[in-house]
User: What shape does this take?
Amino acid sequence: MRPITQSQTGAGSTTAVPMDQYISPFNVGFGVVVSGAVTYTVQHTFDNIFSSTVTPTWFNHPVIAAQTTNQDGNYAFPVTAIRLTVTAGAGTATMTLVQAGMTGN
Assistant: This one.
């Protein structure tokens, strides 16, 4: 997978980035870079984000939650999607995701 970048300025969430949960081993690395003052959390879901009948339940990453500085982390277990949520501040948080095992073009 080529790196995917999502940015959020001010409070709100980015579009969910779907992951390929069938890749084994499942490995996703990410980094979040902050510009200005923001508080953010990286979140994941196990729900089908493409279903019109399901409202995804979002879970906070166990380490990258309520952060205010540049951080990096990973997911070593399958999730269906990842997003970035800014809970406070007027700055911008930018998350870059890379999933191993996928070929890029």
About this structure: The longest strand covers residues 81-89.
